[in-house]
Give the backbone structure.
Amino acid sequence: MEKLKSLKRFQKSVLLFVIAMALVFAVIYSLTISKVGFEYKNTIFIPDQKNGFTVYSGKIQGKQAYFTVSEDKTVVFQCGDKTYGPYTAKEDPSAVPENQEIAAYMTGVELRQGEEIMFRGGGFGKYFRFAMPGMRSHRIGKLQEDILVG
């Protein structure tokens, strides 16, 4: 306590500023990590329930974007004035790549637009990173839970 009293006014103000800065960053950090959503194109899409649909909203390159997931597991993506889909996701155990060491722990998934297969592969937990040959691998993230768990 004596050391604190012996500090000059400038030193006390710097000490208080450092303490305040640490508290502010602790609050900001806790708010940031508590956000629920999924990452797509360096944006976090936040879920909301609207009219029986789960709508994930965010901004991509300044344009408002939405993923809308219906109860029948159909997904529509809208970015600005363009709409993509509808896509249909379903679990398919045969979609799991056989040559993966962790294949026994993976869930197979197939993403279609009409009859065209857009993604076929597997993953575990919240992330689907493995695709079948000739297809691109995508990180689906939290959206996968609403599509597959019913």
User: Anything to note?
Assistant: The chain has three helices and nine strands. The chain has a mean pLDDT of 76. The radius of gyration is 23 Å.
